[in-house]
Amino acid sequence: KQANPRSLIENARRGGYAVGAYNMHNEETTEALVWAAERSNSPIFLQVGRAIIPHMGVRRAFEMTKRIAEKSNADYVIHLDHGSWDEVLEAIKLGFSSVMYDGAHLPFEENIATTRKIVEIAHAFGIPVEAELGKIPDVGQSVNWEDYYTDVEEARRFVAETGIDYLAISVGIVHGVVPGIPLEPINIQRIKDIKAATGIPLVLHGASGLTQQEVDAARAAGVHKFNADTDLRHAFRAGFEAVWAKGDRQLEEAMAEGRTRMIDATIDKMKSYGCIGKS
Ligand code: G3H
Ligand code: 13P
Ligand code: ZN
Ligand code: NA
Q1: Any idea what DSSP says for residue 48?
Q2: Averaged in consecutive runs of 10 residues, what is the pLDDT profile of the chain (279 residues)?
Q3: What's the CA-to-centroid distance between 188 and ligand 2, angstroms?
Q4: What are the counts of helices (DSSP H) followed by strands (DSSP E) for the chain?
Q5: Residue 25: its pLDDT value, please?
Q6: Is 229 labelled as part of a ligand binding site?
Q7: What is the pLDDT of residue 184?
Q8: How far is CA 179 from CA 13, 139, 160, 264, in A?
Q9: Domains along the chain with CATH numbers
Q10: Which Pfam families match (predicted)?
Q11: Is 222 in the pocket of ligand 1 (CB under 6 A)?
């Protein structure tokens, strides 16, 4: 059933674990996420994100996710990931129960002002808001990390002045994983400092490719929502390609194998975040 996003995160905070948030991409990948949650009794954030929106629009993605989730026994939240101003407003109208507004590309003062307006609107509908401070690069991009990291003093002001519910931070993580490209180790001390300055639950994006040691350290430092996409997409692809490699097959057979592998990969993430059996 639809869960209250604040309660999922608050329960995770109190229980010392984290909840996973995963992006849906089509019917089969949405089923994989929902069925993984159902099978392992794990709470789940189902995210409508950057890849799906240009492909089918916020409304169709939301309706597909809702239809599949409603048929299950899973405790789920439908969440807008990396939303623009217009997308957040559309999501609120459609009935999303949690939204992320991503103003990380804006100058700091503008990010504060815009995020604060989003929070006023969303909170009027009882919807919690995730926002991003610092910038999260894509894998393979070469960056000067100090320009990308979330600044601790800025985080303190940002949270105090916007009233957001959870903060997405940049601490060495990247969006994506490419075999052969080593990932930067994440900066756990920076997570602790941001947590101490803000006091609100933190969100770690780009969680694909993290080691279990990093996940555990991030969780202990105050991260209670991990966003993972690429590792699950790779699992789906591996299943699809395993069928395809046998010669010409029906798409359905390949998609079913992709879905099976993605369920297993999602349950692995849930184990890693410690949220199995928490719903
Ligand atoms: O394992 C410890 C908890 O995750 C601490 O989190 O600082 O949000 O209470 P908290
Ligand atoms: P990854 O693709 O690196 O797992 O990142 C997912 C994400 O942050 C979605 O917002
Ligand atoms: Zn992200
Ligand atoms: Na990543």
Answers
A1: E
A2: 97 97 98 98 98 98 98 98 98 98 97 98 98 96 93 98 98 94 94 98 97 98 98 98 96 98 98 97
A3: 18
A4: 11, 8
A5: 98
A6: yes
A7: 87
A8: 33, 10, 39, 20
A9: 5-273 (3.20.20.70)
A10: F_bP_aldolase
A11: yes
